[in-house]
Amino acid sequence: MAARRLDQIAPLFDGAGLTWTFGKAVGNTRQGWAILAAMMVLFLAGVTLAYWAEAAGNPIFHSLGVMGGNMEGKEVRFGIAASSLFAVITTAASCGAVNAMHDSFTALGGLIPLFNMQLGEVVIGGVGAGIYGFLLFAILAVFVAGLMVGRTPEYVGKKIEAREVKLAVLAIAVLPLMILGLSAIASVTPAGLAGPLNKGPHGFSEILYAFTSAVANNGSAFAGLSANTPFYNGLLGVAMWIGRFFVIIPMLAIAGGLAAKRYTPETAGSFPTTGPLWTGLLVGIILIVGGLTFLPSLALGPVADHIAMVRGQLF
User: Could you tell me which residues come within 8 angstroms of residue 83 by beta carbon, excluding any fewer than 6 positions away?
Assistant: First the structure.
């Protein structure tokens, strides 16, 4: 039993451990702890919402006298709690393994894994991939903080200037451009519409999840999509290629530019990047950028699916 529980959280270790490694690399472990704190806030919020949605179950079944949470697509030995936990872990930690069918989750329960990947899997991230994705948001956050204190933003002793911000925005923009662009193509073409086994908003969620998982290089899926076709094989392959390398290239350019800059010691006017205020700003920037970018697609998919379920309609 203890080994099985350890397997559920093992994918977190590499990504979470790299935050400490980052702190050691920049000579200030508090920087790593601040990043880990922001990750944990997002992670715990995701686990809580996913478990609540699954434990609440389906009101349509409740009206028929079938009470309890949503056990569709889940193994009895894991149950709702462990299934919800691992669904969040596998999409936060760039893992891709599953112990339950995400397509069988409730609409809001499936929204959380989807949103984790749309953020770039920065909540924990895989080996390396999560930490550099998170640092892109950190650059944006410190830029916003610099505007608030009225001076050139600095992060880990290096000045963040226009070049770094532009490259960070370029890297972050890769995900929505590919996810939303390719999902839109699949949603209006006959070859794309032939893939979902479900209609309505849930069918759209299956398409959206497929391209989100491919761009994020995750590997999990809403299995209701028949993706083994030339159309989906081709587009998903393009999504995987661009989603991985076109984010790495701007990040490498940022790293090279920062490495060449002279170290600037903190002063009284510097915005602190190690305390609770910084952690809250990081969480806010991630949610605002991710939320505003993907909210319309989530509204058309999981949110509309949930509203339909509440009104007595299933897809």
Answer: 54, 74, 75, 99, 100
At 277, give phi and psi (nearest 5°): -60, -40
Amino acid 121: pLDDT: 85
- The pair of structure tokens assigned to 54 is 């699954």
For the chain, which ranges sit under pLDDT 50? 1-4
What's the CA gap between 195 and 206, in Å, rounded? Answer: 9
User: 70 is written with which tokens?
Assistant: 């949503």
- pTM for the model: 0.91
Give the pLDDT confidence score for residue 127 in this predicted structure: 57
- Identify whether the C-beta of residue 297 lies closer than 8 Å to the C-beta of residue 180: yes
Q: Which two tokens stand for residue 242?
A: 């661009």
pLDDT at 223: 86
Give Cβ neighbours of residue 77 (< 8 Å, ≥ 6 apart): none
Give 13-62 as a DSSP string: HHHHHHHHHHHHHTT-HHHHHHHHHHHHHHHHHHHHHHHHHHHH--HHHH
Report DSSP letters for the chain, one per residue: -HHHHHHHHTHHHHHHHHHHHHHHHTT-HHHHHHHHHHHHHHHHHHHHHHHHHHHH--HHHHHTT--SS--TTB-TTTHHHHHHHHHHHHHHTT----SB-GGGS-HHHHHHHHHHHHTTS-SS-STTHHHHHHHHHHHHHHHHHHHHHTS--EETTEE--HHHHHHHHHHHHHHHHHHHHHHHHHHHSHHHHTSBSS-HHHHHHHHHHHHHHHHTT-----TTB---SHHHHHHHHHHHHHHHHHHHHHHHHHHHHHHHSPP----TTSPPSSSHHHHHHHHHHHHHHHHHHHHHHHIIIIIHHHHHHHTT---
Instruction: Give the CA radius of gyration of the chain.
Output: 20
